[in-house]
Input
Amino acid sequence: MKVVFDERCLEYSFPLHPENPERVEKIKLVLEELGNSFVKPGKTGENSLLKVHEKDFVDKLKTKDYFDPDTPKLDFGYILLSVGCAIKAAKINGFSLSRPPGHHAGKNFLGGFCYLNNIAIALESIRKENERAVILDIDAHHGNGTENIFFGNENVLYISLHQHPLYPGTGKESRKNCINFPLPPYTTGNIYLKILLRAAKIIERFSPKILAISLGFDTYEKDKLSQFLLKENDFEMIGAILNRLTANTEKFFIVLEGGYAEDIEVPAYGFFKTFFR
Ligand SMILES: [Zn+2]
Output
């Protein structure tokens, strides 16, 4: 698989913040060991951001005119770099290994370590107006930003499996084109995989031209921010299910979201061992 990566995404960190550069470094080692190839992102123009976000909001990010305790002020260049990785991944059917994550960023809001919605911008940079797409979000948190951006868009199906209750508290019900599977804390791999297979059936029936995946490793049993109980072999199953799904889709790409365990390489190894497109 082609992995989009730029070492500049490792340059910044915030003291004691769980979204640290080590997470990405550990996943990178796994991908190297499994023999994946790495490519650099391209430059990102402002037009691609404005397909998804409001201009006032983008301007506020540029001038750091915002305050959110979870989402500290960050140089706009780093925010743009992560978007660029996602766009490149969308163009080459690859995986964007980058930070900051994006699925909590909506049209005009940031939060939960997310500034711009990488996956939404990347999808809209390759999707023609009437093309059907699915965003499958398997981060442990609900992608409230992604839902906010695509809510009511009948060409884009948003499907999320997430812990509830948990930050940001949304995603309790399915509405219109947004299908939510809220699952309680301490959900095991068995239950999770059953639900994922249900989601896979919905995706197959929708028959999208593009499948975009928000990949979080925070469903892992040792994650510090959520309470699911998935083990390494569950991630092997997830990788196999998604490998099959993407094989049947003309275009696909994956974007890294969360994952905060010290040994994040364990779920990453499980997933990428069986996801090898
Ligand atoms: Zn998460």
User: Anything to note?
Assistant: The mean pLDDT is 98. Residues 189-206 form the longest helix (18 residues).
